[in-house]
């Protein structure tokens, strides 16, 4: 009999895997899935732990009545297609240079694909902007943002392309990233600016994380105070095909 272990409830650890002999538990609970052979017989599972009485359960493994009882195999779908089974609908525009009204030395954190890093302005509304040099005139159709405090914090934003407004409004609170549609204006400098003070108010009914972490710490809101600062974890610029 092969034992397949599944850890229920906590972070996966090195001793929690298929055929593991020792299992981690949370509140004394874990699960063991048994995958038997085709032969009939008895399966006995015994759990022991220091300071506790051992527990044993015996299960009956029954052989299938015939080969017909086995799960059917169907290869009707055929081989994997030689061409992609998806269609790319947009392309990423990678900026060649990033400017910012404050803390420009960390502005690159907004495009590094690392959600543990971020850029934030200095708290002065006049300096709460970041600008992406696209290298050449082109049309950007969407900006996707993960903002500091994304679930709690309201951000009134204005996005311009070479000075022309392509988006203005309050970025929706979200459970992560938000997609902002842009007016199709051709240009090479896309600027994201804060137009008013930010404010914190949970947009999703005081969600409690299963980790027990406080809301502000879940979204990074404690890293940048609400008010006149623009805080961005990741910014992605797209053009549709």
Describe this protein's structure.
By secondary structure, the chain is mostly beta strands. The protein folds into 2 domains: 2-65, no CATH class; 91-240, Galactose-binding domain-like (Jelly Rolls), CATH 2.60.120. It is built from 1 helix and 15 strands, in the order ββββββββββββββαβ. The protein has one helix at residues 215-219; strands at residues 2-6, 31-35, 41-47, 55-61, 90-93, 97-100, 119-120, 129-139, 142-147, 153-161, 164-171, 178-181, 186-194, 199-200, 231-240. The strands form 4 sheets. Strands 6, 8, 10, 11, 13 and 14 form a 6-stranded antiparallel beta sheet that branches. It starts with a strand and ends with a strand.
CATH architecture of the largest domain: Sandwich
Coarse shape: elongated
**What is the name of the CATH topology of the largest domain?**
Jelly Rolls
By CATH reckoning, the class of the largest domain would read: Mainly Beta
| First and last CA, distance | 53 Å
Low-confidence stretches: 1-13
What composes the largest sheet? 6 strands, antiparallel
Domain module count: 2
| Helix count, DSSP H or I runs of 4 or more residues | 1
Mean pLDDT: 85
Structural class by sheet pairing and helices: mainly beta
Helical fraction equals under 10%
Strand content: 35-45%
Tell how many strands the DSSP assignment holds.
15
Assembly type: single chain
Question: How would you summarize the topology of this molecule?
Answer:
Layout (H helix, E strand, L loop, with lengths): L1 E5 L24 E5 L5 E7 L7 E7 L28 E4 L3 E4 L18 E2 L8 E11 L2 E6 L5 E9 L2 E8 L6 E4 L4 E9 L4 E2 L14 H5 L11 E10 L1
Antiparallel strand pairs: 1-2, 3-4, 5-15, 6-8, 7-15, 8-13, 9-12, 9-15, 10-11, 10-13, 10-14
């Amino acid at each position: 009999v092969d034992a397949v272990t599944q850890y229920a409830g906590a972070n996966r650890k090195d001793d929690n895997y298929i055929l593991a002999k020792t299992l981690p538990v949370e509140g004394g609970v874990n699960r063991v899935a048994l995958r038997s052979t085709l032969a009939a017989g008895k399966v006995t599972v015994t759990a022991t732990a220091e300071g506790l009485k051992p527990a044993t359960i015996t299960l009956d493994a029954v052989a299938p009545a015939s080969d017909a009882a086995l799960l059917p195999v169907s290869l009707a779908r055929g081989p994997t297609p030689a061409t992609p089974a998806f269609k790319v609908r947009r392309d990423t525009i990678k900026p060649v240079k990033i400017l910012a009204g404050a803390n420009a030395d960390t502005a690159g954190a907004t495009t590094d694909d690392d959600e543990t890093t971020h850029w934030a302005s200095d708290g002065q509304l006049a300096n709460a902007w970041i600008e992406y040099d696209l290298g050449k005139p082109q049309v950007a159709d969407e900006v996707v943002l993960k903002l500091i405090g994304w679930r709690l914090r309201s951000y009134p934003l204005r996005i311009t392309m070479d000075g022309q407004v392509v988006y203005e409004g309050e970025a929706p609170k979200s459970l992560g990233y938000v997609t902002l549609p842009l007016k199709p204006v051709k240009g090479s400098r896309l600027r994201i600016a804060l137009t008013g003070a930010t404010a914190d108010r949970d947009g999703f009914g005081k969600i409690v994380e299963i980790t027990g972490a406080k809301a502000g710490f879940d979204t990074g809101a404690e890293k940048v105070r609400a008010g006149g600062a623009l805080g961005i974890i990741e910014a992605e610029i797209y053009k549709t095909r």
